[in-house]
Amino acid sequence: MGRKWNNIKEKKAAKDANTSRVYSKFALEIYVAAKQGEPDPESNQALKFVLERAKTYNVPRNIIDRAIEKAKGGGEESYDTLRYEGFGPNGSMVIVDALTNNVNRTASNVRAAFGKNGGNMGVSGSVAYMFDSTAVFGLEGKTADEVLEILMENDLDVRDILEEEETVIIYAEPDQFHAVQAALKEAGITEFSVAELTMLAQNDVTLSTDAQEQFENLIDVLEDLEDVQRVYHNVELGE
User: Fold this and answer.
1) How far is CA 150 from the centre of its chain?
2) Which NCBIfam families does the record cross-reference, listed alphabetically (predicted)?
3) CATH 3.30.70.980 domain residues, the chain
4) Long-range contacts of residues 11-20, Cβ cutoff 8 Å, at least 24 apart
5) If DSSP codes are grouped into helix, strand and coil, which group holds residue 2?
6) With bands split at pLDDT 50, 70 and 90, how would you rate the model's confidence at 92?
7) Cβ-count burial of 30 within 10 angstroms (0-12 exposed, 13-18 middle, 19+ buried)?
8) For 98-139, how does the pLDDT look when each residue is reduced to its tens digit (9 = 90+)?
9) Which of 193, 171, 190, 168 is nearest to 181 (CA)?
């Protein structure tokens, strides 16, 4: 799974380059999670998960607090959670997760992004079956063996643990997210370079230089869309 971790790092670096976009998307996700349940992460697992992920992106506290306060105030804003699936250049696969208050607008914008960048929308289920929902953690300061020992002491059997350069990467089942994180925190590990649920492709593909350039344009356009929260794909990104 090491190559997939490189894809995660690549996407995260690209998002970090545009912090205002990242922060606005997190603000909306936090607002929706807080509004759909209690505005307290200790009793709202969805909100707790979003806040943990926001921490790895260094989302400022004032943005988080403002989103939660907005949710406490109620309001008539209603958002739908949507997932789109499609194909990029040379049959590459893409999954797009969105939060929107205008389904028609979002569908039109996502469809246009695919169509103008060498891709096309697929029907529900046409791509997702080639991806696995996965909890991923990245941390430093420990070896893979040390992390494995911590997890074993807590009776946690995860999918895989890898060590790349100075980073240990843990791949776990989605429903293990909070248990794994709690075990690591109890062992004194509180900082994570990545702590999120993602969709990992079962098999990555490599594109030609021209196709990859077109594919990266597609991903950039999708991620720039106001309603799009997350984009997953099966392309092995070049250097």
Assistant:
1) 25
2) PRK00110.1, PRK12378.1, YebC/PmpR family DNA-binding transcriptional regulator
3) 80-129+202-233, 131-201
4) 11/231, 12/57, 12/194, 14/220, 14/223, 15/57, 15/223, 16/57, 19/58
5) helix
6) very high
7) buried
8) 999 999 999 999 999 999 999 999 999 999 999 999 999 999
9) 190
Alpha-carbon distance of 135 to 140, in angstroms, equals 17
Nearest to 36 by CA among 50, 24, 57: 50
Residues contacting 113, CB < 8 A, separation 6+: 119, 218, 221, 222, 225
Residue 116 and residue 89 in contact, taking contact as beta carbons nearer than 8 Å? no
Shortest CA distance to 35 belongs to which of 45, 23, 43, 47? 47
CA distances from 230 to 25, 145, 155, 156, 191 (A): 9, 32, 31, 28, 22
Pick the CATH number of 80-129+202-233 from 3.30.1220.10, 3.30.70.980, 3.40.50.920, 3.90.226.10: 3.30.70.980
- pTM recorded for the entire structure: 0.88
Domain 13-72, architecture per CATH: Orthogonal Bundle (1.10)
Residue type (1 letter), 35: K
Q: Name the one residue in this structure whose structure tokens are 């997939």.
A: 4
Give dist(CA 67, CA 79) in Å, integer.
Answer: 14
> Which pLDDT does position 17 carry in this prediction?
59
Q: Which CATH number fits domain 131-201: 3.40.47.10, 2.40.420.20, 3.30.70.980, 3.40.50.11540?
A: 3.30.70.980
